[in-house]
């Protein structure tokens, strides 16, 4: 099995299930031309996020890690008219590209981008008396994943869906001795998720145009 084949199959799947979309295509295009890293979810993964948000009936979504707003647009499109998404981004340049992409998508009224390191903006968010989120997507710096999971729980209710990207890292996740801080962050996150009595969770390996990685998915089963 090769990257070439995974990419070809992703193209086959995307051609079938994800028709060309000027807004999403422009989001990827402007992200690339602005020099953002190609760390966005793939088109069929974006569609999966939309489907999960719809299945969840999500009216409020929190995203940690915006980049150019590609996954943001997919998730926000799953929201009802009065739905809201807050997305957290530390890099001003990424935020600027994302804001333009969100505006082009006509989602400015639904999406609020908060600029700042998530470990600074999450406590602010938690201090505002707001209802818990229906869905939380964790996709920022991986060494902070254990902290993001703790904040996600604080911002959850029974029934909240928590999704984390990049929990397999090309298989490196099985290396307990890895000295890669991202691998250790993801390992610790997976362990916390597995041991947490307030959630029911699993992880799924994925291959595709973005290589070999995976998603973790958890439902909050207890009141917070
Ligand atoms: N969710 C996006 C991809 C996010 S890539 C998509 O699929 O389209 C990870 C993003 O997290 C990057 O834009 C990076 O700048 C941001 N990031 C890294 N560290 C962060 C931090 N401490 N707080 C908030 N965002 C951070
Ligand atoms: C990286 C981050 C991501 O969110 C992703 O989807 C792929 C790669 C990274 O930091 O390498
Ligand atoms: Mg990711």
Molecular structure report:
The protein has 224 residues and is an alpha/beta fold. The protein has a single domain (3-220), classed as Vaccinia Virus protein VP39 (Rossmann fold, 3-Layer(aba) Sandwich), CATH 3.40.50. Helices cover 43% and strands 20% of the residues. Strands 3-2-1-4-5-7-6 form a seven-stranded mixed beta sheet, sandwiched between helices. Strand 6 and strand 7 (211-220) form a beta hairpin. The N and C termini lie far apart (43 Å). It binds S-adenosyl-L-homocysteine (SAH), 3,4-dihydroxybenzoic acid and magnesium ion. Magnesium ion (MG) binds at residues 39, 139, 165-166.
Number of strands: 7
> Largest sheet, order of strands side by side?
3-2-1-4-5-7-6
Q: Any idea what the shape is?
A: globular
What distance lies between the first and last C-alpha atoms, to the nearest angstrom? 43 Å
Instruction: Classify the secondary structure makeup into a structural class.
Output: alpha/beta
Q: How do the SSEs run, as a string of H and E?
A: HHHEHEHEHEHEHEE
Q: Could you name the ranges where pLDDT drops below 50 across 5 or more consecutive residues?
A: none
Number of domains: 1
Q: Average pLDDT value?
A: 97
Helix content: 40-55%
- Over the alpha carbons, how many angstroms does the gyration radius reach? 17 Å
Using the coordinates above, name the CATH class. Answer: Alpha Beta
- Strand percentage, roughly? 15-25%
CATH architecture annotation name: 3-Layer(aba) Sandwich
